[in-house]
Structures are given as structure tokens and as C-alpha cells.
Design brief:
It is a single chain. By secondary structure, the protein is mostly helical. About 65% of the residues lie in helices and about 5% in strands. α2 (about 75-95) crosses α6. The longest helix is centred in the N-terminal third of the chain and has 63 residues, at about 1-65.
């Protein structure tokens, strides 16, 4: 009788284990099907993003009337750099300022940080501090030099373009000349 009870319990445990396994197997099949749908959607989104990048780049190429470049494998960062380069070229061709071209500060790549005041800051945060202290607009090269002096660490290959793009996107700053930025708040203070 004890053996029969033990066998009955084992059979019940076996049925429960098989039922749990069947439920888990069905759930796994659902998750795998959902994963395939998501993979297909990601592929479609990548394709659309690539097509959008190509269309934007073609439009910008037409606007800037410069030579077009291949965009099949161009990243968004490379497109931003190319856009900034072409915008700067177009700006210079519309407003030639040969005397100002000589006044562009020289980039100092061998600068040793004199402090760590910008170590944990973003470009807009640190640049706000720099422009307040300067009491006037500065060229991106000078902003770059001062950021380096303050211990700012750049990760990209073109830090001055990173600065220009970051400041162009931020409403706290305005471009006052090619590659030269100032604080918008300074204009508001002068107007009142």
C-alpha cells in the first residue's frame, strides 16, 4: 500500500512536470515568434533610417551645391560633420571676411589642463561658464583651448565641430560670426 501511494505521488509529480514543461515550451515558442517580429521591425527601421539619411544628405548636397558623397554606409555623425563643413563653406562664400580669417585662434593640442573645473561638465555647461567669464563672443577654437585648459576631455576626432554642433543645437547660444558664438542671455540684458 505504501508503494502504491508512492507510485501515485510520483505519477502526479510527473504529470505536473510534463504540464509545466508544455506550458514553458509554448511560452518559449510565443517569445521566439515575438522576437522574430521585432527583428523584422528593426531591420525595416534600419532600412528606413538609411533611406532617410540618404535623402537628407542628397537634399543638403543639392542645397550646398557641393559634390555629393556616397551615403550607404555614412553614419549620422559623419553626416553632421559634413553638414557643418559645408555650412561653414557656404557661409564664408556668402560673407567673405578675409581679415577675420587671420584672427581665428590657433588650436593648441599640446595644452596641459591647468584645472579640472570642466572635467564633469557637458560642452554647453562649460561653454556657458567660459562665455560669461569672457564677457563677449568667442571662436570655437578659443572655446576649445579654454575647455582643454579646464580639463575637459573630448572623445571625438573633430572636437571643434563637436563644439559648434553642440552650441548650434542649444538655445542658450547664438552664432554671431562664422565659428563664433555668444550667449543669448547677454543680448537680452543689453536690450533692456
Amino acid at each position: 500500500m505504501a508503494n502504491e501511494t508512492l507510485i501515485a505521488r510520483l505519477e502526479q509529480s510527473l504529470r505536473q512536470s510534463r504540464g509545466a514543461r508544455t506550458r514553458l515550451s509554448a511560452r518559449l515558442a510565443e517569445i521566439e515568434a515575438e522576437a522574430e517580429i521585432i527583428r523584422a521591425e528593426l531591420i525595416e527601421m534600419d532600412t528606413l533610417a538609411g533611406q532617410t539619411e540618404a535623402a537628407i544628405f542628397r537634399l543638403l548636397s543639392n542645397v550646398m551645391s557641393g559634390p555629393s558623397t556616397q551615403v550607404g554606409t555614412t553614419s549620422v555623425g559623419e553626416l553632421e560633420i559634413e553638414l557643418q563643413r559645408r555650412l561653414a563653406q557656404a557661409e564664408l562664400s556668402q560673407h567673405p571676411l578675409p581679415q577675420q580669417r587671420h584672427n581665428v585662434p590657433i588650436l593648441r593640442s599640446d595644452t596641459e589642463p591647468t584645472s579640472d573645473r570642466f572635467y564633469d561638465r557637458t560642452i554647453p555647461q562649460a561653454t556657458t561658464m567660459i562665455l560669461r567669464e569672457a564677457n563677449g563672443p568667442l571662436h570655437v577654437n578659443e572655446i576649445y583651448n579654454r575647455l582643454l585648459d579646464g580639463g575637459f576631455s573630448f572623445t571625438g576626432h573633430n572636437p571643434t565641430i563637436s563644439i559648434a554642433v553642440s552650441l548650434n543645437r542649444n538655445s542658450r547660444f547664438r552664432k554671431v560670426a562664422p565659428g563664433t558664438f555668444d550667449l543669448v542671455i547677454r543680448d537680452a540684458a543689453k536690450a533692456s
